[in-house]
Specification:
5-stranded mixed β-sheet, mainly beta
C-alpha cells in the first residue's frame, strides 16, 4: 500500500511539471430546447478535456472561467444530444446554444425513445443522476451498485463479498421491488424479481450514465416498481471516431484491462462501437477469487435527414467467482482472527491440490441483445420500438452428500465453539488455520467407500457416493460438489406510439415478455469418487452418473445431459398496455397521468418430482396501475411537484406455485401499493437543491407459517394482509462556491415500519379451525436497509488535477429478519435488532494530461480510508441480555457480514 502511495505521488509530481499553465477566459452563453424554444436549466457545461465546468441557471444562461484561452465547450443535458461549441479569446460569448432531444445522458446518446428519462423542472418525480465521468473514475474495483450510495434512499452493500454478489435497496425496498433497466430493457428476474449483479459486472466499462427515479417514477412498463426505477444507460454507436485503452489495479490482486474503439458515424449514417475487457482478482474475503470477460458491441444506422434511426447492441459479462455463502457469527470472526476480529474470514474457503478451492462457485454468462428502432412518422407522431433477447447460462456450485454423518468430513458443524472443534479434530477436514483441507475430503471419501457391487453395468468395483442411497456399498456419508443450474431464455418487445398535439402529448404503448427458466442440478466434482448414485428422479429407480459439468462460463451447462436431485422449468409470460397524457404549457406547468393494465401467466413443468402431474395448468393473473402528478415552476429558480399512484401488482412465481409443487396457490392475491410524494426544487448557476417527502404503503401480502393456539396446539396460519409503510424525507444539494470547487450533500431520513399486528385463523392438518394466531409486528422497524444516511463530498480542481473526499454516515440499520420469526409470536417482543451506526471516508485523486496529442487520465481511489470496522448487514435478530457476550452492544452469536476494510485501486487510461 505504501509503495502504491509513493508511486502515485511521484506520478502526480511528474504530471504537474509536465502540465503547462494557459491564459484563462470567461465564456458565457445560454442553452435552450431547439424544438420547444424553452430554456434548459441545469445543463452541464464542461471545458472539453478537463473537469472544469458549471451548470446553467434557471434561465438557461451560464458563465464559466476556462483554463485555456481557446478550446471546446461540451454542453450536455439529460434527454438531449450533446453539443460541442468552440470558444476563443476573440469569441468568449457563445450566444444561444440549441439542443435537440435525443434521450442522452452525460456524453453518450441513448438510442431509443422507449427509455423514460425524467427532466428537471418538468417530470414530477424525485430523481438523481450519475454521469459517465463519475462512473469511470470512482467505481474502480468497487461493486457497480455502490456508486449509487451517494444518492438519497439508496443502501448498497457487497453482502458476503464475492465479486458481483452485491445488492441494493431503494427507500427500504429490496431489489425484487425496485425496477432495473438497461437502455430501457428490464433485467429483474421474471420468476423472483431479483437482480444478479455478477451477470452485469461489465456495466462499469460500458455504462454512460445512471438515472435513479425514486418512488413511482416515469417508467411506462407493464408492472411499475414499489421502491423506484434505476435506469442504466450504456454506450451506443458514437459519432466521434477514436478508441480507449485502460488499465486498473487494486487491492488483493485485482487487475482489469479494457480496450474500446468507435468508428464514428460515416457519411452513409453507419457507426459502430466495440469494447472488450478482462478482469481477475483474489477477492477481499479468503477464498473468493474470480475472473471474467466483458464484451460489448453496438452498430447504429441514422442517415442524414432520415426519419429512421436504428441501433443493435450486444452486452455480456461471462464470469466465475468463488463465494462466501455460509453466514458467520461475530464470535467466529473473532476466533479465526490472529489479532482480534478477522473480517476476511470465510467458512467455505479451502485448498485442493495446492490451489484455492471452494464448494461455492458462481459461474454465468448472460448476453443481452437489443435492437432499437426510432421512427419519426411525421411532425405529430413518433414510434419507438425495442426488441430484446437474453440467453443466460450457468449456476452456482455447492456441497452434496450426507457428510454430516461422518464427523471427520463434516465441514459445517454449527457448534458453540467452532475453533476447538476444527483445531482439535485430528482426522477432520480443517487445517491449522481453519481452512477446509479438500485433499483430506478426497482421502476420506475414498477410504470410507467400498467398491460398488450393484447391478448397474459399467460401475462394478468403483467408488460410488450418494445423498441417501446406501445399498450395494454406496456411501451416503460423502461430500461432492454439485452445480445448481439456473439458465433461461428471455425475449421481449416494448413499443410506444407518441403524438404531439400542441401543449398535449399522448402515448400508447405495449410491453410483451416471454421467459423460460431451466432449473436443475448436475455433477461438477466427485471429490475422489468414481460416480454418484442419483435417486432424485421419481421416474427412475436410480442410476449412477459420472458426467461432470465445468463450473465456468462459455462452457456446456448440461441442459441435455444427466441431472440429479431436481429438474423443473418455469414459464412466465407478461403482456401489458399503457397510456399517458401529458400537458406542458412550455413555461410553468407540466401535468401527467399514466395508466396501464397487464396480465401475467405462470406455468410450472417438473420432470423429476411430479411424476403424476408433470405439467401444471397455466395460471393468469391480471394487474394494473394508475399514477399521475404535476410540476409547477414558481419562479425562474423554484419549482414544486407532486405525484401519487396506486398499483395492483401480481405475486412472484414461487407464490403461485408454493412448496416446489405444481399445485396452484388457491389463496393467491395481488399486492396493493399506494404512494404519494411532494417535492421542491431550487436551481441557480451555482446551486441546485431538491427536497422531497414521500409515503408508500405496501400491503395485501400473503404469509403462511406454523403457530400455536392458546391450548398449545400447533396449526397453520395464513396471513393475507401484511402491511408496511415507508415514509421519509430526502434532501440533495450541489453547490459550486467557486469554479474550482464542487460540493455535494444529501440526507435521507426514513421511517419504515409494519403498520399493525396481524391475526389469522389457525387450521390443523385436516383444515379444521382450532383457534387464532397473531404476529405482533406493530411498529416493528423494517430491516436490511439503513433508514438514515447522510453524505457530503468535496471535489477541488487544481489546474488539470482533481482531489475529492466523500464521507457517508449510516444509521437506523436493522437486522434482516422474517416476520414469521418466533420472536414476533410473543406480544412483548423487543422488535428488530438495531445495528451500530458507522461512517466511511473515501478519497480520490485524478489527473488529465496529453500524451502525443491525445488525452490520458490517471485515477487513484481509496475507500474506507480509516479502515472502519462495521457490520453492513445481519441475518439474525438476536438481542443481547445481561449474560450475553457482545461486540459493540451486539450479541456475538448473531450471523453478520462485516463491510470491507481499507481498499484501493489505481487506473490509467489513454484515448486515441
Amino acid at each position: 500500500m505504501k509503495q502504491v502511495l509513493k508511486l502515485s505521488i511521484m506520478m502526480l509530481m511528474a504530471l504537474v511539471f509536465a502540465t503547462s499553465t494557459n491564459a484563462q477566459l470567461t465564456v458565457t452563453g445560454r442553452v435552450q430546447d431547439l424544438q420547444a424554444g424553452v430554456t434548459l436549466p441545469g445543463a452541464s457545461i464542461i471545458e472539453d478535456g478537463t473537469e472544469n465546468g458549471t451548470i446553467t441557471n434557471a434561465d438557461g444562461s451560464f458563465s464559466l472561467r476556462t483554463l485555456a484561452s481557446s478550446g471546446n465547450i461540451r454542453v450536455s443535458y439529460v434527454g438531449y444530444e450533446t453539443v460541442i461549441v468552440e470558444f476563443s479569446s476573440g469569441s468568449p460569448d457563445l450566444g444561444l446554444i440549441e439542443m435537440s432531444a435525443s434521450l442522452e445522458l452525460g456524453e453518450v446518446v441513448i438510442v431509443s425513445g422507449v427509455v423514460d428519462v425524467a427532466k428537471i423542472r418538468e417530470t414530477p418525480v424525485a430523481v438523481s443522476s450519475i454521469g459517465p465521468a463519475e462512473i469511470a473514475l470512482k467505481v474502480g474495483n468497487q461493486e457497480f451498485p455502490e456508486i449509487m450510495n451517494t444518492t438519497p434512499g439508496v443502501y448498497a452493500t457487497k453482502q458476503a463479498g464475492g465479486y458481483g454478489d452485491s445488492r441494493i435497496s431503494l427507500r427500504g425496498f429490496d431489489q425484487r421491488n425496485t425496477s432495473f433497466l438497461i437502455n430501457g430493457q428490464p433485467v429483474n428476474d421474471m420468476e423472483n424479481g431479483w437482480v444478479y449483479w455478477s451477470n452485469w459486472k461489465g456495466l462499469t466499462d460500458v455504462a454512460s450514465g445512471i438515472q435513479i427515479q425514486r418512488g413511482l417514477g416515469a417508467s411506462r412498463l407493464a408492472v411499475p416498481s414499489v421502491g423506484g426505477t434505476v435506469s442504466i444507460f450504456t454506450k451506443a454507436a458514437k459519432k466521434e471516431k477514436g478508441g480507449l485503452v485502460s488499465q486498473t489495479i487494486g487491492n488483493d490482486g485485482y487487475l482489469k484491462t479494457s480496450l474500446a474503439y468507435n468508428t464514428g458515424r460515416g457519411e452513409s449514417g453507419w457507426a459502430a462501437s466495440v469494447l472488450a475487457s478482462r478482469w481477475q482478482g483474489n477477492g477481499y474475503a479468503y477464498g473468493t477469487s474470480g475472473q471474467g470477460w466483458t464484451y460489448f458491441a453496438a452498430v447504429g444506422y441514422e442517415p442524414e435527414g432520415s426519419k429512421h434511426a436504428m441501433n443493435l447492441s450486444i452486452l455480456g459479462a461471462g464470469q466465475w467467482h468463488h463465494q462466501r455463502s455460509s453466514w458467520i457469527s461475530i464470535r467466529d470472526y473473532q476466533n479465526f482472527g490472529e489479532e482480534g476480529l478477522d473480517r476476511r474470514w470465510n467458512t467455505d474457503a479451502g485448498f485442493l491440490d495446492g490451489e484455492e478451492f471452494n464448494m461455492r462457485r458462481n459461474h454465468y454468462n448472460k448476453p443481452l441483445a437489443t435492437f432499437n428502432w426510432d421512427y419519426e412518422i411525421n411532425s405529430t407522431f413518433t414510434l419507438n420500438t425495442s426488441l430484446y433477447g437474453s440467453a443466460g447460462r450457468g449456476g452456482g456450485t455447492g456441497p452434496r452428500g450426507q457428510n454430516f454423518r461422518n464427523p471427520d468430513i463434516d465441514m459445517y458443524p454449527y457448534r458453540t465453539d467452532l475453533t476447538n472443534h476444527y483445531l482439535n479434530n485430528e482426522n477432520g477436514t480443517r487445517d491449522a488455520d481453519g481452512f477446509v483441507d479438500f485433499d483430506a475430503v478426497v482421502r476420506i471419501n475414498q477410504s470410507t467407500t467400498e467398491p460398488y457391487d450393484g447391478d448397474i453395468s459399467g460401475f462394478s468395483g468403483l467408488l460410488i457416493g450418494s445423498n441417501g442411497y446406501q445399498d450395494n456399498n454406496v456411501n451416503r456419508a460423502v461430500l461432492i460438489r454439485r452445480s445448481s443450474m439456473n439458465s433461461h431464455d428471455w425475449v421481449g418487445a416494448i413499443s410506444n406510439l407518441e403524438g404531439q398535439f400542441g401543449n398535449l402529448t399522448a402515448s400508447l404503448g405495449v410491453d410483451l415478455r416471454y421467459y423460460k427458466g431451466y432449473h436443475y442440478r448436475v455433477l461438477n466434482n466427485l471429490m475422489g469418487l468414481d460416480g454418484y448414485y442419483s435417486t432424485g428422479n421419481d421416474n427412475s429407480a436410480g442410476l449412477v452418473i459420472n458426467t461432470l459439468i465445468d463450473a465456468s462460463p462459455f462452457r456446456n451447462t448440461g441442459l441435455n445431459g444427466p441431472k440429479i436431485d431436481y429438474y423443473n422449468i418455469g414459464v412466465v409470460g407478461w403482456s401489458g398496455v399503457n397510456g399517458m397524457v401529458e400537458y406542458n404549457d412550455q413555461t410553468n406547468l407540466t401535468a401527467v397521468i399514466q395508466g396501464g393494465l397487464s396480465n401475467q401467466s405462470f406455468q410450472r413443468i417438473d420432470y423429476f418430482d411430479q411424476s403424476t402431474n408433470p405439467i401444471s395448468e397455466t395460471k393468469s393473473v391480471g394487474g394494473g396501475y394508475i399514477k399521475g402528478g404535476a410540476n409547477y415552476n414558481l419562479t425562474a429558480s423554484s419549482n414544486v411537484f407532486f405525484n401519487t399512484g396506486y398499483i395492483s401488482r401480481q405475486p412472484n412465481f414461487d407464490a403461485v406455485f408454493p412448496n416446489f409443487a405444481n399445485a396452484i396457490n388457491e389463496d393467491l392475491q395481488n399486492e396493493e401499493i399506494f404512494s404519494v410524494e411532494l417535492g421542491y426544487g431550487y436551481i441557480t448557476n451555482n446551486l441546485k437543491v431538491n427536497v422531497n417527502a414521500y409515503s408508500t404503503n405496501w400491503g395485501n401480502r400473503f404469509i403462511s407459517r406454523a403457530l400455536f393456539n392458546a391450548q398449545g396446539d400447533e396449526g397453520i396460519a395464513q396471513f393475507r394482509d401484511i402491511d408496511v409503510n415507508h415514509k421519509g424525507i430526502e434532501v440533495e444539494a450541489n453547490y459550486r462556491p467557486m469554479s474550482a470547487l464542487k460540493l455535494k450533500g444529501m440526507v435521507s431520513a426514513g421511517d419504515w415500519r409494519y403498520t399493525k399486528d396481524f391475526t389469522s385463523v389457525l387450521f390443523d392438518a385436516d383444515q379444521n379451525e382450532i383457534g387464532t394466531g397473531t404476529l405482533y409486528l406493530k411498529d416493528a422497524k423494517v430491516g436490511d436497509a439503513a433508514q438514515f444516511v447522510t453524505y457530503l463530498s468535496a471535489d477541488y480542481r487544481i489546474s488539470n488535477f482533481n482531489i475529492d473526499l466523500g464521507y457517508r454516515y449510516v444509521d437506523g440499520l436493522y437486522a434482516d429478519y422474517s416476520v414469521t420469526d418466533d420472536i414476533f409470536a410473543e406480544e412483548d417482543n423487543p422488535g428488530a435488532l438495531k445495528l451500530p451506526a458507522y461512517g466511511l471516508l473515501d478519497a480520490g485523486v485524478s489527473a488529465r494530461f496529453n500524451i502525443f496529442g491525445n488525452l490520458a487520465q490517471f485515477r487513484f481511489n481509496v475507500n474506507n480510508i480509516l479502515d472502519k470496522v462495521y457490520i453492513s448487514e445481519s441475518e439474525t435478530n438476536i438481542h443481547a441480555d445481561e449474560n450475553s457476550e457482545t461486540w459493540e452492544g451486539i450479541d456475538v452469536t448473531n450471523s453478520v457480514w462485516f463491510g470491507f476494510g481499507r481498499t484501493w485501486n489505481v487506473s490509467v487510461s489513454y484515448n486515441f
